[in-house]
Amino acid sequence: MRSLVEQKFYFSVVLLSVVIFLIYNSAQAYPEFIAARYPRCISCHNNGTGGGALSDFGKNIFKNELIFTSSKKENTGALNGLSQEVENRPTTVEANNLKAEDVEPKNKNPWNWEPSFKYLGLWKEDNPRSNSTKDKFYHMQIDGNLVVSNFDESILLSGTWGSVPTQEMIDDGKYNRILSKDYFIRYRLDESLFLYFGLIEKTFGIRLADHTIYTRSQTGLNYNSQEQSLLIQSFTDCWDWALQFYWGNPYEIDSLKNKGASFTAEKNISELNRVGLSLLSEKNDNLQHGLFSMHWRYGFEDGSSVLLEYGLQNSIINFPDQNLIGDFGFIQSKLFLDRGKYLKFGLDKYNTDLKIGGVDHWRFLTGFTLYPLSYLEMGMDILQERIVSVTDIKDDIWSVRGYFHVAF
Amino acid sequence: MLRFSVYLFFICFFSARNSHADLRLSYWTLRDQIEVKQGETLKYGPLIQTGFGLEFTDIKDICNWKFNLGLLTGLANTKVDDTLHYESLQSDWAGAYVSVQQNTIISKNTAFEFGLRAFYKTIQLTSADGIQVRPSQSADLGIFIQPVIKLNNQTELFQSFGVNSKNGNYWQFGFGYSFL
Fold first, then answer.
1. A336 at interface of B, judged by CB pairs closer than 8 A
2. B-chain residues near A335 (CB < 8 A)
3. In this model, does residue A28 exceed pLDDT 50?
4. Less Cβ crowding at N or C end of chain B, within 10 Å?
5. What is the distance between the alpha carbons of residues A72 and A315, in angstroms, rounded to a whole number?
6. Quick check: B128 contacting A, CB < 8 Å?
7. pLDDT grade, residue A390 (50/70/90)?
8. Does A273 score more than 50 pLDDT?
9. How far is B109 from chain A (nearest CA, A)?
């Protein structure tokens, strides 16, 4: 009889083989927005590693490109729901690497001021239609942001203030702990090289908007895991990479301040097909933490996409003395139905310690995402969490959640 | 069961080769119930099975219904009854299924498949002290739905959700390769 560890090993080998097989046998090309021909975070975010406030370009996409349309004519020619005029825009590489003289000043002022706002509300009901059912509404994100940049955005300053509640406050429904969530200065050193300095989220793997996914929630990469950092990021036709050094979050107590580095690189196999790897090593007074992952992002000409990530996590805990090696991963496919309408299917898993067999957590997701109006995203998901253990049999946990996201 | 699986594999494989079929490799997780009889007493317990599956699609295509044959094997976790010493066992299991399915094309790259499946599964239970006890067999019927994304003319990714007649459900994720 094979042990659980052996089974997981075989599964990992098969999974990686499948990825390699698919990469080398697939000539078509896009992750979520890779399918909209925006393979890079910096197309829509001021922070080139993703997350945080939207850039002007990103707001424009949220306002005009993603939303429903009633015009059949516009729809027929649209590639994955994008308006026809967008098909003639410059490639993302070109868009990301605009020279100073190519950029038309937004106004006569040498400095541009741009405020923005983000809200994400989430309703979740666990174990619906059972005796243990419970539901709750969460304000996942309430952020205000101010960006100041010079006319060609070679220098950009960004600051975000928002609600950062503790778990106890979330349980009590209080969200009035307002902190500076991130702040950074961004220099464009040349056409493809950016330097960031400030309080920034850690760069690692595929940065999905859903931070409840195990690859974010179980790896210390959740919404409020920003660190004081120095980050350098490069974009080329073949490779994109980002290297970040960090030395702690100022709101943490000294013993919990993480000091470390992370690195993400992504190879551009084709316009709609990218593979990458990420490394992270950090420590504080209580633990040493290491992460390694590989990922794949693939888009289709019809607007659908597949994202896949698999990685290993090592946690060396001082008290009590533990050395854990776990794994984590997900696959998410988003099927394009019509402009502004997507079906979503996902599978994610993690295990805290492979050495002793550990406990496998699997989560299956089925849902939809809609962009009915400018600046509005909404969706609903059904989730099933299954825990597979050699020491216990637990009931599956079913959840339903709905969310809406506004950013302008 | 092993002999049965080998026979079925070769039947499926050669049938598939002769009818330009698809071959699908997938990872499964099934939740079900197990029955164990000790003397005159019938005990029930939760059962979680995980493992790999191999499926041959398109064996026959009649009136747009496609017929599939599949094989499954992996590990099962059970907890029937403490008094029977079946506390949290881990056992080998194997299974086979036949299914009929209908396809709905959504777009150039995506499709939905849905249909009916009839399972036959056997589990080699092992008691807590390592002694093998007789296998437990079960047969059930289920319905399933699975979105499919075609990566190119030959390869595809799919994810399946199904429920069966014993109030169980399963998820399946995998990729397929076409001989065409």
1. yes
2. 106-107, 110, 147, 149
3. no
4. C
5. 54
6. no
7. confident
8. yes
9. 7
Nearest by Cα to A147 from A259, A298, A44, A46: A46
The reply to whether the predicted model has a pTM over 0.90 is: no
A243 is written with which tokens?
């290297």
Report pLDDT for B58. 65
Q: Of A334, A393, A396, A398, which to mutate for an interface test with B (greatest number of B Cβ within 10 Å)?
A: A393
Q: How far is B63 from chain A (nearest CA, A)?
A: 26
- What pLDDT does B113 receive? 87
B:138-167 residues touching chain A, CB 8 A cutoff: 147, 149, 151-152, 154-155, 157, 159, 161
Both tokens of A167, joined, read 């778990």
Are A138 and A158 in contact by the 8 Å Cβ rule? The answer is no
Q: Do B147 and A306 touch (CB under 8 A)?
A: no
- Between A20 and A338, the more confident residue is A338
With vertex at residue B173, the alpha carbon angle to CA A347 and CA B167, rounded to the nearest 5 degrees, is 85
Q: Which long-range contacts (CB under 8 A, 24 or more apart) does A37-41 make?
A: A37/A79, A37/A82, A37/A91, A37/A92, A37/A271, A37/A272, A37/A299, A38/A92, A39/A92, A39/A268, A39/A271, A39/A272, A39/A274, A39/A297, A39/A299, A40/A92, A40/A96, A40/A235, A40/A240, A41/A207
